[in-house]
Protein 1
Amino acid sequence: MQESSLNKLHLEDIKNPNHPSVFFNHVEYKILIYRLFENLDDILDVKSHSFVLDEDENIYSYNKENGQLSKMGDYNAFYDLLDSMVDKGMKKVEMNVEQIEELEENIYDDSDAIQTWFALKKEMVRIERILSQAIKTHSEFIKNSTIIQNDSKLLTGFEDIEEHLNRIFRSCSVNISKLDSIYSLYTTLASEKMNKTMFSLTVISAIFLPINLIVGFFGMNTEGLYFSGNPNGTIFVTTIMATILVSLSVIFFLKRKSFY
């Protein structure tokens, strides 16, 4: 099969390196594009793989580097290629699930927890979106392939791939919900910590406010202040402030003890 036999718009689609998964059932041929996983590096790598099926349902793989359509051996080779890409996606999701479980255990101790959360959430949502389209495309391909429908062994194999895609998709959905729960827990703990800090600051302010008033009062540069002419005035004022401080501290701790 040559490029010239393809519709111009379909040719643009199979050349597009970022085209989403899709299945076109044309009168003279079928276009099949899978956007699936390429490797297992820290950064998720996704690639669009384009295939063309002629009237006899022979499968041609499109090489985006040299722009050539190459006939694949048989449907077993095509199955092995799809199975390999799906397995990479499954392993990537399993790696993310392990990170999510670790994040859940150390959410309050890890200083980079929120950055890890955002990275995992972004990646899992992206995988879920990719899988959603791939599942639909794969299902349409199976239904419209006479060769697969007439070969029970092939049908079982390609349905197994569909089951794997659905399993990964469900795992993504469950763990996205778990990430949302982890974020709610994180914000709750952060709010609780902030509330405790604000409560402590409020108590400290309440204790030292009367003392500040006394200091400010006796610090005025005016005549006739109490104890201004008394040689023991400083001792008296210090005693008054200490008494107020101790009294407020005792009241606070008694109320706190009765509260808890």
Protein 2
Amino acid sequence: MTDFVPQMTEDEFDAALAAADSRPLLAYFRQDDCPPCVEMTEPLAAMAERLAGRMRMACLNQAIDEETQELQTHPLHRRYPMTAMPLFALFASGRPVLWVCEEDAAALEALLTDVLDALEGMPLPPVPGWAVKTPRERTVHLPDPSPAGLTLFDVSDPEETRELTGTATIPAGEETYLQVAWMPRVGGPKPDYAALSAFSGAADHLTLSDEELDDEKMDHVLELTGIRSARIYVAKLTPVGVRKLAGLSGVASIYLLGEPGPAIDEALQYVREALPDTIVQDRWAAAGLTPLLQRAAARS
């Protein structure tokens, strides 16, 4: 492949990962309705040219259809955990070694230069659990009706989001989202946290936007197994509650919404160390590269 491919299909991407070319491959996840992605177009092309001898780069774009004005889903945006954009994943020897959300092209280039230097002669770790998604068909048995404040959605069809209740079949490759929401100013029933475990094995992603989520409720969240990503609003969580997230073993990504603050950031560092294969706040690096990611965050 050439050093920079402006748009790559899933098959082309898999072929590039398996190619004999020893240079790392930088995957750039973007979409047309993302303003920072649009702003980075020219700087990234220039960066790809400067680093051409050291790495390859491929854009995995979700384009907007000119006729329907609908966003066209790229399969690789479903294979890997998407949290925010623009996202960059660096693959070396066919496996991911770096995952970062970055809107500053200069900062990204500085980080990549450090990483490419470090990769020379560095033994690569095993592929993390989130790197490959195995589609499978599932038959799940859910509460009917859904417990208060808990709703499981199948959003595989953008034109028809459906709530799942009772006995339901989830086709291979499709993903589900469990929404746990409560806002005092809006009202409604408070989430029944004791019923969360009933969605284990059925929920792929968790969005928890309860403005009164506290440390005690987090214990029930940890009873939910099988989720691949979690987005959690941290209004009343203490560092103790955030540290409990380290119990979400196997989760691909964790992102805290709101304004965490220094104490929460310190607790997140504990989570990163406890879950070395989990993307935390849109940042992950393989063992040996983690210090570079930390230094890059300190510079920004």
Protein 3
Amino acid sequence: MVAFDVGRVWGVLVRRGLAQARLVGAARETLPPGALKPSPHERNLLRPAEVRDAVHAVCAQLGLAEGQRADLILPAGIARPVLFDPPAGDTTPDSLRFRLANALPYAASEAVVGTIPVPPGRVLAAAARRSVVAEYEAIVEAAGCKPRRVELAPLVAFAGLLARPLPARALDVVLGEAAVSLARWEHTGLATFRTRLRTVSRDDLAWLAAEIERAAQTDGQTSFAAVRLAGAGACALADHARANGREALLAWDLAQPPSGMEPAEIAWLGGVLR
């Protein structure tokens, strides 16, 4: 499995057992600034040779053979997930594409739709432009692997989080390097879901803390029991929240993480290991 974000490429090997998947290998390569910039409709890989070399390096470190198939996880920022109630339970790709069409900056026919079911009967869906998906597939192929299934990091992350539902008035925060998604839980399940772009010019911790407070508001009042964090900057944000009197949890942990890996800083990790 190969996963992309603004500043790094991850490669992981996962072994699936009867009860749970297990991480058996991991590799990471840092991308130079400006090599990858997630966008829903514009070119993402601005310096493709450097991204290709990073993908090739992680595949080599994991011992993947030339032409071996790999699943891809594309970064937050190329699609905006939407939580909604499908009409009459219709979750076919065409129906979801139609529901998402008004929010897309390109023709709905160009959209590749990903979904995860959200009990009791809702859907979290996101659409990525075919040309953007093809860009990532092409760079993996240029690095010597064959792309297989393609998934979106926020959806993979929330698939893992949904397997561990939080109590009412708690928040889940999934942190990509380019975008952050915030979900509020209520007694009936997942109640709201919103995504905001991150920018390096902001005081990131203060801005994220303010977004968490805003996502927790109901009827003009801020009230939440705890916040659970996964992704880029999760550990620092948890420390910031605790210093300000909030209960903060890290979403993922491993008994023996690979060297150089902080599980909570990888948003999609719990999703691939569920």
